[in-house]
Amino acid sequence: MPQENQKFRLMGGLQAVLGSTYLLVVAEKPWVTLSSGILGGGLGTKRYFINRQVPSGYCAGQPVEELAAYLAASFKEYDPSRRPDWTALMTAAQVKDACFIRLAGADCRAAVIATAGVDNACAAGVTPYLNLDPAAVGPPGTINIMAFSSRALTHGAIVNAVQTVTEAKAQVLREFSVRCPRTGAYASGTNTDAVIIAAPDAPACLPYAGPGTRIGYLLALGVRRAVAEALKRYLSNGDKF
Fold it and tell me: For the chain: N or C, fewer Cβ within 10 A?
């Protein structure tokens, strides 16, 4: 497990650092990225990928603006005029308990970073609409996943990879018997989960990233191991679900 403020090579073209309140991955060149992040979400090219830890009672009226101000104050690399280079997730989970997984198979490599908290676990399609009201949702808990493919992916394959890693996450939650506290159903995630999928910006793209492909298998296996270990660390701290 990386030590605080230690920089290390995550995979070719990617460097990571674990800070006291963040996980930052920096790409040498922009990577094609699909992100559900509150800042820099959507499909585009990114160089900076961050998972920021916030207090459990975090409730900013303008979270995008607050997050941008945090980045500007914390990172010399952050330039408001080039904000599209960044995508950011937020979590109340302890970033020091993040799990880093690197896998390789034949001509493919995958790297996955996960943080986990599941106090507000939910079952998609079963847990009722809650409008993310803290009084209704309960204590914060988020599973954030950043997954990186060494092989370039078509836009369709990147969407396919989101499907693949989400299925892997849901399977881990089932194996840990995590349930929605409101309905008792097996949880598929939490109300606030987020994901980043990134791959090099290169012409020779893989067309698929489902669980039956080599890169899909590596991404899914990385998510299984990262989320499982992050959940174990979460539970070892005395947290419950």
Answer: N
- Name the pairing type of β-strands 121-122 and 108-115: unpaired
Give 187's DSSP letter: P
Architecture in CATH of 7-236: 4-Layer Sandwich (3.60)
Please tell me the distance from the alpha carbon of residue 33 to that of residue 198, in angstroms, as a whole number: 4
Indicate the SS3 state at residue 219: helix
Euclidean distance between CA atoms 39 and 67, whole angstroms = 8
Summarised one tens digit per residue, pLDDT across range 93-147 is 999 999 999 999 989 999 999 999 998 899 999 998 866 555 555 556 799 999 9
Cα→Cα distances 77→26, 64, 71, 85, Å: 10, 18, 9, 10
Q: Quick: pLDDT tens for 188-209.
A: 999 999 999 999 999 999 999 9
* Domain ranges within the chain, ordered by starting residue: 7-236
The model's pTM is 0.93
- Among candidate residues 111, 180, 175, 184, the one with its CA nearest the CA of residue 148: 111
Q: How far apart are CA 5 and CA 89, in angstroms?
A: 19
Three-class SS of 135-172: HHHCCCCCCEEEEEECCCECHHHHHHHHHHHHHHHHHH
Angle at 146 between CA 214 and CA 176, to 5 degrees: 80
Give the C-alpha separation, 223 to 225, whole Å.
5
- Tokens representing residue 169 in the block: 């996450």
| DSSP label at residue 47 | E
**C-beta of residue 99 within 8 angstroms of C-beta of residue 143:** no
Quick one: angle between helices 155-175 and 214-236, nearest 10? 40
